[in-house]
Write a structure and sequence with these properties.
Strand content: under 5%
Mean pLDDT: 87
Distance between the termini: 25 Å
Number of strands: 0
Structural class: mainly alpha
Number of domains: 1
Oligomer: single chain
């Protein structure tokens, strides 16, 4: 996970540096990565689910079942979240 996060951070930093040189806004750099993430994780509700499970409030029985599954696959979900943004950020290197 650290390697994926570092790769994403490096690609975004490179894109932001290029944008600054060309007078572009930061939003133009992050738009594709954010769009891809939103398409996969926000539109499906997985992003909101992770936020809800991070709260200390009590969960309903169905949520508890889903929470256990989410926790069991948390690393894979997190890798997919970061990995989904990489194609958008990688395209900024050119």
């Amino acid at each position: 996970m650290d390697r994926l996060r570092n790769l994403l951070a490096a690609d975004l930093a490179h894109g932001l540096a290029l944008a600054a040189e060309q007078g572009a806004e930061a939003g133009q750099v992050t738009a594709v990565a954010n769009f891809l993430y939103g398409l996969v994780f926000e539109a499906t509700g997985i992003h909101d689910m992770g936020l809800r499970f991070a709260e200390p409030s009590a969960l309903s029985i169905p949520d508890t079942v889903v929470w256990r599954s989410y926790l069991a696959h948390r690393e894979a979900i997190e890798a997919a979240m970061v990995g989904t943004q990489l194609p958008g950020a990688y395209g900024l290197r050119s």
